[in-house]
Amino acid sequence: MAMDDQSPDDEQSPDRDGRNLHRRKRVQNFVLLAVLVSFVVLVYFVSIVRMGAD
Amino acid sequence: MSDRSLTLGVNEALAPEASEARVSDYFALLKPRVMTLVVFTGFAGILAAPGPLHPLLAAVAVLCIAVAAGGAGAINMWYDRDIDAIMRRTKSRPIPRGRVEAPEALSFGVVLSLFSVMVMGLALNWTAAALLALANGFYVFVYTVWLKRRTSQNIVIGGAAGAFPPMIGWAAVTGGLALEPLLLFLIIFAWTPPHFWALALYRATDYAKAGVPMLPVASGTRHTQKQILLYTVLMAAAAMSPVAIGMTGWIYGLSAGVLNLLFLICAWRLYRTEESELEKPARQTFGFSILYLFALFAALIVDRAPTVGSFW
């Protein structure tokens, strides 16, 4: 059968690709989360400074 | 169908899946090296301006300038993806490499640009925000879309976009404009042609292949050498203007004098060089032009530091 001819590497590569993709997406999501949290913190402190100035 | 759409069609068909994109690819879309100069000159504009500004708000202003410049860079990479794939200098950018899909780069650039203008307006003032929007609009629509592929004067007029940051920084502090930030604008405006034409001299083949009418491609190397010298003289005069109006002291005056002399020597050597031996002096002039702008604005910051210190 064709499947018997496949090397172990060939069988694992879709899994490995999937894991790599999953890892990249997770890193991107964490970076996005960090950016959003930083923005919220920044807006908070900018508001404090602006209110103080007024 | 135009040549541009044909090339785009081929490039997009060859582009792999966008799932290849890493965080570093999005960072590369921001043109971080260009951003460094923009941020530095914007920061100098903030420090040169009279009046108090809370350090946090100064940091936000610098951040907005950086993010807006990055956004404009991403939109530029989206629009120029066809010629970027042809040129040696740019073919490893995220879109031609297929790491980021073109529409994704466009959305990324637009979101960053709008976001930075909005934050600048809310946190600082709407004059600075309007100037930031104008700078981005100028870079994207006037330089990238309109001039870059049409005229050899592309970077002379389009270079104005890169000259905005000191004015934006000044406006972030004062809420308005004055003669001083206009002079800082003029310095960068006059600096841009010798900077880019020096690069274009040793990348002329690349630009010609991509069909970008940079001055060496459109008018030849001899004419470019003359123009570099001419604009360097104009730039040197512009660099001395802050001293002439009493905006800066001896630290800036002395630094500007020395830097001008060195830049003029570079431009003169380049002017005197035969076409066959242009690469080395052109590379040196390009390299020195970057150092020149950093050093000049660093001298401005140091010169203005005692005045600024009393406000913070």
Explain what the structure shows.
- The complex is a heterodimer of chains A (54) and B (312).
- Chain A is an all-alpha fold.
- Chain A has 1 helix and no strands.
- Chain A has one helix at residues 8-53.
- The longest helix of chain A has 46 residues, at 8-53.
- Chain A is rod-shaped, with a radius of gyration of 23 Å.
- The relative contact order of chain A is 0.06.
- Residues 1-8 of chain A have low confidence and may be disordered.
- By secondary structure, chain B is mainly alpha-helical.
- In chain B, helix 11 packs antiparallel against helix 14.
- Residues 9-18 of chain B have low confidence and may be disordered.
- At the A-B interface, helix 1 of A face helix 4 of B.
How would you summarize the topology of this molecule?
The complex is a heterodimer of chains A (54) and B (312).
Chain A: H1 8-53
Chain B: H1 3-14, H2 23-29, H3 32-48, H4 55-79, H5 81-84, H6 102-123, H7 126-147, H8 154-158, H9 160-163, H10 165-174, H11 179-202, H12 204-210, H13 215-219, H14 221-244, H15 250-272, H16 279-309
Helix pairs in contact in B: 3-4, 3-10, 3-16, 4-6, 4-7, 4-10, 6-7, 7-10, 10-11, 11-14, 11-16, 14-15, 15-16
